[in-house]
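Researcher: Last one for today. Full complex below.
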Amino acid sequence: MPTDQKNYKKVAYYPGCALEGTGHAYNRSTKAVGKKLGLDLVEVDNWNCCGAMEVKNVDPKIQTYLSSRVMSITANEMDMDVVMAPCNGCYHNLKKAEYELANDKESAEVVERLSKEAGHETYKAGQVETIHALDWIKHTIGEDGLRERVKNSLSGMKIANYYGCMYTRPRHIFPEKDAGPGSESTYRPHFMDDLLEAAGAENVEFPLKTACCGGAHTLSDSDMSTKLVLNILRAAEESDAEVIATECPTCHTGLEMHQIRAEKTLGVKTSVKILYFTQLLGLALGLKPRKVGIQENISSSTDFLKEKGLA
Amino acid sequence: MHTRSLHDIEKQLEELIAAPCAGFDAGDLLRMSEEVLEHWVQAHRQTPTQEKREGFRLLALHRQGAKDDPSFNACRETCRELVYHYNLITMEPDHPETQKRQRLMIMVANHLFLFVGGKLQVQELGDFCCASKPIRQSMDSRPTGTETTLESS
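Model: Here's the assembly. Have a good evening.
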């Protein structure tokens, strides 16, 4: 089946830790958009942390196990074969675990041993397909499907689409990307651009769409994170964007927090708005701002959305 | 060929961001970005390559810098965007958007500088630049003011 004609109408939903905390607006808007589009999200039962950065740095094989447990529950307890992870970190880690289990015997042995100790079935590579929220909407609804459903066009809104660094890297764990027509590009990703354009937005040429947001430096070197974020914000404004659309809770929170910090510590004010792509799609589909968690963002965009006739 | 210090590069980038049209030179900005990567390669006790990939030394240097260090690939597209903007600016100098392209190229170069500079400062942190490893602990335990500077690596 061509990559652009998949059907993900009912998928297991793995929100991950961030979407229950700082990224709650992403959680809320993802669920609201899914409901509006008639897509069924079934939350993974008793899910655990994907291993994030912290566990991966202590012992990558433990991270592989933790991610494999999420996929094991999806396949063996929920009898589902697709899991959707909207967070770039979770998406990346599940994909990485899939790759490790398919290609590294030692990882497979560790996962088997730990799964037995934990008392659940061992996940076997290939049982589950991990997808991102962008794949979910792009492949199931598509641009034409979105155009048909748009009630409040994003027309007149200039958007810089920001994907962050984990959605496309490392390339070898994403075999479905760079796979010809209809597939996502790791060099210049475009799924978010495609969806928001279908909702009426004008995408700007944005050269830092996969650049590092400094998220991992936030605790060890906050000043560096602020400078990296400020550079992204300025580049977006230089590209004439009014909004930066995000699809990762770490990037999103970092952009919002360091936008404020840049003004306080460096005296540089930027006014570009930062919104999840699911919030923008939800508004375009006719959902009210509260339904997509606009009030949960750190920065207020209410006046801007009113100006655009979306609030 | 002389390699500017990271301090000088930072200063020059700040000046360019403040006044992008004054003294903009796409070739020099590309060279400056190569020098940023030279610092990274030299910090790993290697000799910066003089080879080119796809016609650009910057891309060869990135490849050299990313060998055995997957986290360094987080600046792969930044390098490619620099090359892309260099081509746009030099091949279409009279294009109506040239000034905008120049400003964006400066910001892409600045991002590369910030990313590499940040990684150099926390060199040998975790595989994906997060979480402390012993080397960081030993760096942090040094008396204030004795940190390893980028230039001295």
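Chain B has a mean pLDDT of 82. Chain B has six helices and no strands.
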